[in-house]
Specification:
Organism: Marinactinospora thermotolerans DSM 45154
Membrane topology: Multi-pass membrane protein
Protein name: Transporter, UIT1 family
Helix content: 55-70%
Strand content: under 5%
Keywords: Membrane, Transmembrane, Transmembrane helix, Transport
Strand order of the largest sheet: 1-2
Number of strands: 2
Largest sheet: 2 strands, antiparallel
InterPro entries: Cit_transptr-like_dom, CitT-rel, MatC_N
Shape: globular
Length: about 450
């Protein structure tokens, strides 16, 4: 059996095992890289370790460490409170505020599941209180997370841009970000008007007996949200006596740090990982108590996942699998059809497995095909990225499961069927639309 086929079988086996069993796919990938590399390819361990993505490791650790500090010191709470108070009692605006908050969190470095875990309980609590369709609210949160998920300083964005930077393909970080954001906004507009959003227009929170929102600003603050840095957030209860606190020094410093991260990494082209971890360490020095436990909140499972998967991709490159797949795909003789098939493969697998892992595999596999120049590389990477992440609405994904778990006042079985039906529509139509809008026209 050829080395290329062995690596493909190993890759498929990893996805099956990680889907059936609660085993981190990154750990499986490290084992596969070691066994396949040494036994099938005759690689030494130094060569295998050399494929480890050290730059991406620094980005993952730095960005998630910084976000953990922001979560710990209440800066995330502050952003949520500020955004929700902008609603001013207008119920139709609440789903959009939830979309915007979640997009902001992922755009500045939160992992998509972490952002959804924080916002979904709040959003679905508002849905139950104000009579908003829970499917609408839950899916707005998920699409918000995906909309902001490809900013240049986000985890998804840094992953895709880092992979592309290591090839001869043209880079388009801003195009990738805006493609995902606008695509998810478009889906959310359709959702809003399809799932009862029109009936929310003109309704005000003061019309609901259980929520005491008046015309004065003091009453409007009842819409504030509080939390303690985890997914256990809840809407503030009327009469609780709690009012939003003023800005503290560490929160001001965190907001400045997040601003500096964007300016230095985007405006001055400094390494995102180094900038993020520098900002995080400065915040830790300025306020040691506020950052207590932040190291434990770094998403080590994601670090392991991407580290293992990209190390295995390095072994696949050594085996010639990337070129083998690229040549096989190119041999089909219909570049646009191939592009569409790649989008569907990414979407279908991602609906049941990790989107991060899918991005780490499918984009390198598509590189030889894109180098042929028959399809716009920037547009195709954007289409593949969007197709592989919009399906996170699936109840089998972490994001979809979080929405299902946090729904209030609904029949769980019926709500599960609704999410399943919606995710089926997204898997069926989403990749086709992403391909048709982003890849096929060739305008990106």
């Amino acid at each position: 059996m050829s080395p290329e086929i062995i690596t493909i079988i190993a890759l498929a086996a990893m996805f099956v095992v990680a889907t059936v069993l609660p085993v981190n796919m990154g750990a499986l990938a490290f084992v596969a890289a070691f066994l396949v590399g040494t036994l099938a390819l005759g690689m030494d361990t130094d060569s295998i370790i050399g494929a480890f993505p050290g730059d991406l490791f620094l980005i993952l650790v730095g960005v998630t460490y910084l976000f953990a500090i922001a979560q710990n010191n209440g800066t995330v709470d502050l952003l949520v409170r500020s955004a929700v108070r902008l609603v001013g009692g207008r119920i139709a605006a609440i789903p959009w505020v939830m979309f915007a908050i979640t997009a902001l969190l992922t755009a500045v470095g939160a992992l998509s599941p972490a952002a959804v875990a924080i916002i979904a309980p709040i959003a679905l609590g508002f849905a139950a209180r104000y009579g908003i369709n829970p499917l609408l609210m839950g899916m707005m949160v998920v699409h918000g997370a995906q909309g902001g998920g490809f900013s240049p300083i986000s985890i998804y964005g840094a992953t895709v841009n880092g992979i592309v930077a290591g090839t001869d393909l043209p880079a388009g970080p801003l195009t990738l970000f805006l493609s995902s954001l606008l695509f998810n906004i478009g889906i959310s507009v359709l959702l809003f008007f399809s799932l009862g959003g029109r009936s929310l227009i003109g309704r005000h929170a003061r019309d609901h007996d259980e929520v005491h929102v008046g015309e004065h600003s003091d009453d409007a603050e009842r819409l504030a949200v509080r939390g303690h840095g985890s997914s256990a957030y809840k809407a503030e209860e009327p009469g609780s006596g709690e009012t939003p606190r003023g800005l503290r020094f560490d929160q001001i410093a965190t907001l400045i740090g997040l601003l500096l991260l964007g300016v230095l990494s985007l405006g001055f082209d400094l390494d995102i990982g180094f900038v993020a971890i520098t900002v995080a360490v400065v915040l830790a020095v300025l306020s040691p108590k506020a950052q207590k436990g932040a190291i434990n909140k770094i998403s080590w499972s994601t670090v392991l996942l991407l580290g293992g998967m990209l190390t295995f991709v390095g072994v696949m490159e050594e085996a010639g699998t990337i070129e083998y797949v690229g040549d096989s795909v190119a041999g089909l003789g219909a570049p646009m059809l191939v592009a569409l098939l790649l989008c569907y493969i990414g979407a279908i697998v991602s609906a049941f497995a990790s989107s991060t892992a899918i991005l780490g595999v499918t984009i390198p596999l598509a590189v030889p095909f894109l180098l042929a120049g028959d399809v716009s590389a920037v547009g195709m990477i954007a289409a593949l990225s969007v197709a592989s992440t919009i399906v996170d609405v699936s109840p089998f994904s972490t994001n979809g499961a979080l929405v299902l778990a946090n729904a209030k006042g609904v029949d769980p079985d019926r709500f599960y069927r609704q999410i399943l039906a919606y995710s089926g529509v997204v898997v069926l139509i989403g990749p086709l639309v992403a391909w048709a809008v982003l890849a096929a026209p060739g305008w990106l």
